[in-house]
Amino acid sequence: MTDLVSPVTHPKGRSTQRRSTGFARLWQRADRPARLYLSLFAVVLLVTLVGPLLAPFHPDEQSLLARLRPPVGFDRAMPAHPLGTDQLGRDLLSRTLHGLQLTMLIALVGSLISLVIGVTLGVIAGYARGRLGSAIMALVDIQIAVPFTLIALLVVAVFGNSLPVLIAVIGVSGWEVYARIVRAQVLSVSRQPFVEAAIAAGAPHGRILFKHVLPNVASAIIVVWTMTFSAVILLESSLSFLGLGVQPPTATLGSMVGLGRDYLASSPWIAVVPSLVIMFVSLLVLLIGDWLRDALDVKLK
């Protein structure tokens, strides 16, 4: 007779078999395209962290003798500047590496601020309901109705266009998306029998929220964050393009596009190089968010 091997259990009955983490389980379920997206995004994060250390020049170093040089492969190109130079002779590769780091930092901090504000208000609106929930949803409607560009112009005119102000402006730009989705999820989860049983048992509201409600809406929050992160990158680039973002000579991807718009006819690489980076990162995050939406959807399992 063949012996059946069973896992060794803890004295309290819990299995001692090693459980894989949430990311490991997602990686195991990922198909080949999803693994490619995740690997490429890991490379982007690595370049964001160490890229400025590998930059061949200082991002603000000017050389008028090397101005308006095209990328390698075109006439008048210089091997020392593989992506070309701008109108002041600054190396585009160095400025792109520094601009990517600053753009990702602004987008990451700004999106996290939106996430915290939106999730907090969405949970309150969905769990408390009543007049408080109606007041929060009225704020959401106001945020949607008012053009955000006008809000950004007003804030920049009053407080200036420093980096903290830009991050704060981006942070309050998309919280209404989180609030609406989280409110709907909380309304659905709060009607489940296990939540009603916890309320009937007299469990504190904080325990119900953090142990029963939030874990069941966490997947939706993750998906919304990945889907809106690319929008935050585009928003920062748009504000910098309009002159409302980080001011020259500090490089961000959006400001590089804005400075290169006057040279599109004669030297298009000045704006095309940062534009391609913005497009690549935004598309990559959108593809990851689309995959996460399917991977975390319990209805598709």
Give the SSE string: HHHHHHHHHHH
Class per helix and strand makeup: mainly alpha
CATH class of the domain at 90-296: Mainly Alpha
- What is the overall pLDDT average? 82
C-alpha-based Rg, rounded: 24 Å
Oligomer: single chain
Q: What global shape is seen?
A: elongated
In terms of DSSP E residues, the strand content is under 5%
CATH architecture of the domain at 90-296: Orthogonal Bundle
Give the distance, in angstroms, between the N- and C-terminal Cα atoms. 37 Å
Tell me about the largest β-sheet.
none
Number of strands: 0
Number of helices: 11
Low-confidence stretches: 1-19
What's the CATH H-level homologous superfamily of the domain at 90-296? Answer: MetI-like
CATH topology of the domain at 90-296: MetI-like fold
Helix content: 55-70%
Organism: Mycoplana dimorpha
Domain ABC transmembrane type-1: 100-289
Pfam families: BPD_transp_1
Keywords: Cell membrane, Membrane, Transmembrane, Transmembrane helix, Transport
Short description:
By secondary structure, this protein is an all-alpha fold. It is built from 11 helices and no strands. Helix 2 packs across helix 3 (92-128) and helix 10 packs antiparallel against helix 11.
Topology:
Layout: H1 22-29, H2 32-54, H3 92-128, H4 130-145, H5 148-159, H6 163-171, H7 175-189, H8 193-200, H9 205-241, H10 253-260, H11 269-295
Helix pairs in contact: 2-3, 2-11, 3-4, 3-6, 3-7, 3-9, 3-11, 4-7, 7-9, 8-9, 9-10, 9-11, 10-11
